[in-house]
């Protein structure tokens, strides 16, 4: 125990010294000069300074500060967000899934049913995840009408929620971005929102499709680029969802049955601005990595037909490993932007050690794995599945507490695609864990293959815990069952 405390103390002192090295050097140099200077000399030099010199120094400092502000991109803020909260009658407990599967023997054979149930039991999903009305019919209603009904329910509920939680009005929205991967009707979702909320005729609207679960943070990147060139006070409304009704796979290909088991209904809306007024979070960093040049990554999440002509999404068995590879590439660009100097120095030293040992013919040395908990108080990993969360947790060396928001979101809401990271943010807030100045890292993965990292800083914690967790937060966290290999 004493050894552990000693090591912890040394780590703390190391980080304190390295991260504040410039201030320590300046203080030491100043102290040295003062120590060698008598009080009489200090007073004499102070009398030599003319008022005009002080004025010039102040003007120069103000000019430098002004030029720095002008040259720096505008800050982007998250004003508010809201999530769709499904009603209890949309629940799809395992028993219901099993019963429905047996009621469709001409679509799914007994072996496929057993596989799907085993997958559900090992998925990390709980008994309260929800699916749209269309999934409660036998056979599922995959019509355009059912998809539109689901769209209006989840999108309008999320947008209503975000407007209810902030004083921003619909007429203040200057840009609208809506993302949904597979279902894209005409008119598109963006026009649907404009029509429902009677947004201004000059509103700029964009509809993103086919980008998978990473589309929500891709939309944040697009909004950031627009806001940094827009007039002050511009507001962007982002809506992220995945519409399931028309996408139910009715074949027997196991890799294409996975989305039926993992994806659940959900949506989130957020309002971003380039004005700090009414803001709750400040966007600090955003890095997007695309690995589509690799054929395996490109086909990792792939929409196609099976040998019987049934359309579905095929998820590769290497999905978790692909996510890990994409995350490594993303971290290589993201890490230097967010990690403190103490962690970057350790990475640089381990890299140098590895190079020197390789030159001497020694065995390959593992690089130092930086501790991202020194840069962030909260981490929101896309709740894509138990395997994806496990891969990221292991790769980053995170504790169970660090990934609690991701696992509990997967358990309560399932994989809600691009909106999942906002359900996780809502979990952290509902637990009362968010404080002013806290830093948040959101990680998302999507078809392509994409990996996105977005860093936020809390400006103002929530005034209340109202949100998608309002009825269930007192029951979380829950203990997840252990996976037993059969």
From TrEMBL:
Keyword terms: Acyltransferase, Membrane, Transferase, Transmembrane, Transmembrane helix
FAE domain span: 71-356
GO cellular-component term (any): membrane
EC main group: transferase
Keyword hit for Glycoprotein: no
Pathway membership: Lipid metabolism; fatty acid biosynthesis
Membrane-spanning intervals of the chain: 12-37
Ranges of residues in domain Beta-ketoacyl-[acyl-carrier-protein] synthase III C-terminal: 377-457
A GO MF label: acyltransferase activity, transferring groups other than amino-acyl groups
EC numbers on record: 2.3.1.-
Keyword Transmembrane helix belongs to the record: yes
GO biological process terms, semicolon-separated: fatty acid biosynthetic process
Pfam assignment, any one: FAE1_CUT1_RppA
Highest taxon above the source species: Eukaryota
InterPro entries, per database record: 3-ktacl-CoA_syn (IPR012392), ACP_syn_III_C (IPR013747), FAE1_typ3_polyketide_synth (IPR013601), Thiolase-like (IPR016039)
The family this protein is said to belong to: Belongs to the thiolase-like superfamily. Chalcone/stilbene synthases family.
Protein name in the entry: 3-ketoacyl-CoA synthase
Gene label: CUT1_2
């Amino acid at each position: 125990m004493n050894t552990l405390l000693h090591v912890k103390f040394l780590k703390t002192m190391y980080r304190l010294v390295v991260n504040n090295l410039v201030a320590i050097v300046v203080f030491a140099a100043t102290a040295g000069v003062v120590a060698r200077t008598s009080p009489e000399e200090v007073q004499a030099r102070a009398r030599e300074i003319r008022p005009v010199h002080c004025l010039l120094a102040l003007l120069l400092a103000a000019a430098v500060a002004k030029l720095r502000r002008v040259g720096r991109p505008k800050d982007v803020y998250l004003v508010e967000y809201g999530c769709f909260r499904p009603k209890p009658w949309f629940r799809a407990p395992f028993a219901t899934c099993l019963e429905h599967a047996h009621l469709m023997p001409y679509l799914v054979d007994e072996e496929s049913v057993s596989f799907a149930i085993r997958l559900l039991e090992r998925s990390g999903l709980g008994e309260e995840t929800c699916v749209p009305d269309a999934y409660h019919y036998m056979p599922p209603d995959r019509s355009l009408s059912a998809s539109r009904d689901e769209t209006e329910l989840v999108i309008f509920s999320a947008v209503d929620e975000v407007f209810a939680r902030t004083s921003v009005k619909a007429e203040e929205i200057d840009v609208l971005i809506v993302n949904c991967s597979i279902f894209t009707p005409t008119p598109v979702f963006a026009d649907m929102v404009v029509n429902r909320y009677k947004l201004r005729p000059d509103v700029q609207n964009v509809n993103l499709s086919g980008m998978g679960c990473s589309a929500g943070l891709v939309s944040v990147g697009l909004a950031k680029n627009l806001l940094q060139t827009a007039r002050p006070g511009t507001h962007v409304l982002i809506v992220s969802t995945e519409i399931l009704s028309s996408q139910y796979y009715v074949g027997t290909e196991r890799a294409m049955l996975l989305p039926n088991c993992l994806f659940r209904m959900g949506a989130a809306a957020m309002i971003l601005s380039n004005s700090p007024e009414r803001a709750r979070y400040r966007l600090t960093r955003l890095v997007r990595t695309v690995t589509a040049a690799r054929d395996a990554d490109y086909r990792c999440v792939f929409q196609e037909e099976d040998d019987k002509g049934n359309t579905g999404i095929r998820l590769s068995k290497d999905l978790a490993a692909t996510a890990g590879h994409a995350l490594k590439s993303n971290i290589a660009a993201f890490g230097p932007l967010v990690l403190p100097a103490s962690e970057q120095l350790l990475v640089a030293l381990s890299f140098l050690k590895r190079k020197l040992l390789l030159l001497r013919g020694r065995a390959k040395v593992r690089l130092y794995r930086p501790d991202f908990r020194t840069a962030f108080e909260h981490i929101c990993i896309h709740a894509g599945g138990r395997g994806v969360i496990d891969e990221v947790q292991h790769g980053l060396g995170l504790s169970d507490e660090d990934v609690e928001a991701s696992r509990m979101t997967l358990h309560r809401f399932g994989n809600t695609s691009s909106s999942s990271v906002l359900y996780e943010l809502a979990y952290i807030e509902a637990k009362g864990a968010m404080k002013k100045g806290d830093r948040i890292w959101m990680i998302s993965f999507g078809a392509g293959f994409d990996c996105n990292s977005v860093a936020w800083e809390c400006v103002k914690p929530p005034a209340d815990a109202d949100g998608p967790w309002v009825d269930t937060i007192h029951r979380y966290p829950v203990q997840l069952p252990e996976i037993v290999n059969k």
